Amino acid sequence: MTKENVDEYQPLLFKDEKDTKRTVKFPNKSLLLAVCAACIGGTFQYGYNISIINAPTTYVHDFINQTWTERYQKDISEDFLTLLWSTIVSIFTLGGLIGVSIGGALSVRLGRKGTLLTNNIFALMAALLMGLSYPTGLFELLIIGRLITGINAGIGICVQPLYLGEIAPTALRGITGMGTSVFITIGILSGQVMGLKELLGREEHWPILLSTTCVPAFLQLLILPFFPESPRYLLIDKGDEEGCKKALKQLHGMASFDSEQEDIEKERNNLVGFKAKKPWELFTDHSVRLQLITIMLLNTAQQLNGINAIYFYADYVFRQAGIPDDKIPYATVGTGACECLTALTCGLLIESLGRKVLITGGYMLMSICCILFTLTITFQNASPVFPYLSLACIFAFILSFGLGPGGVTNILTTELFTQTSRPAAYMIAGSVNWLSFFFISMVFPFIVIGLKQYCFLVFLAVCVLVATYIFLIVPETKNKTFLEIQNVFRSTNKRMASSDDGGGTTLLATSL
């Protein structure tokens, strides 16, 4: 690179003194409201539809049995009933996979905000179908409705973090991005609360319960139009300078939008001649190889780290601890509240401690909990104290997950890529996440049957390996612009690329 070119890209390679002192104490009010508006119809729906299906299990079984008998004048077999129920529950993951497969492309075509607004059509359709299933006597509508809710969740969990990461100032990108995990946990908790018998958990209310997914959709359609499109999308993808300035002023305030506009313009200038990449193009791009490996590993680990196993064992541990069966739903709400609390805590700590400390520490604490939980379950009947120790391990594991892996994973997916690669990266990360979700839901029962409490030794290995990888490979991204983060990976990716073909496209190439 010539001296002139080095001088030209000096702001991209090194932070100046003013940049290092760049801090924002608290998000602008408009920014906070925009985050809430995006999340209520985005990842809130993901968490809500995961948890809300648990409460009406018995009632839906009875409905399917009754419908089958009326149609065919004979009872449905137990095996086929189980198959139908499993399909209703698990087809959500197939819908999610479809959703992330189209979410990235939609976010480029319609914009981040436009895609989020359009996505509510799926939520409203699903709510209508599931609400009509009982009065029409068509349990098939439940299957179709759950598939469509999965599509809605898949698009939301792909596009919403894109929007949050791109509307936030650099100094607040972490706490803003935490909106994704915070609203997932709020959604899970809300679904658990709505499923209590005091609200909509009674037999006569289950169709209404499943239809309440329309409420967040209506809220987002009412609120989100008052907030702007992603400034980065407006300037880099659409070339709308005036729209970008207006959006930044609304989201960041008049006093602090200049530096963010400068960062976006630097990124746009560096990406001149590049178009939004397709997912398969990222696999052949040596300049993002390490970032791609990282997000695939983190999204796989997010499903395979044992959090699902902890929830599976929760009912058993609650019973062993002497909690009556009719009180267990309230204890389960306690686990949801615990995860919600840690997501909020992570949001408060992420800009002070950084991403790397939280996610590495979270996985290490989960590893310790895996060991302790295996021991307490093994000796569950040895002393009356052990059930309570197991209970403590459950809450400690959930706390550890929410404090790091649950919150930071999506933020890193946003931060490790620049504008042209980010939508495709989210499609890949989301696909890996949903496939891992499907895999663990299918394989997990067999792991439990085969290994019993020792299944947590498998999850222990996953947690330790991921923590080690993050500690050794993943850099801290706090207070760095997207280009500065890319430059951290630049030398490593160049070495990896040179081992294949002696070169590769780098972010700071001058022949654009």
UniProtKB/TrEMBL annotation:
Ranges where the Major facilitator superfamily (MFS) profile domain occurs: 35-478
Protein's UniProt keywords contain Acetylation: no
Membrane topology annotation: Multi-pass membrane protein
Pfam families on file: Sugar_tr
GO biological process: D-glucose import; dehydroascorbic acid transport
Transmembrane annotation, as ranges: 31-48, 83-104, 116-135, 141-163, 175-194, 206-227, 357-379, 385-412, 424-448, 454-474
Molecular-function GO term, any one: D-glucose transmembrane transporter activity
Entry superkingdom: Eukaryota
Location(s), subcellular: Membrane
A GO-annotated cellular component: plasma membrane
Keywords: Membrane, Sugar transport, Transmembrane, Transmembrane helix, Transport
Protein family membership: Belongs to the major facilitator superfamily. Sugar transporter (TC 2.A.1.1) family.
NCBIfam families: SP
Protein name: Solute carrier family 2, facilitated glucose transporter member 11b
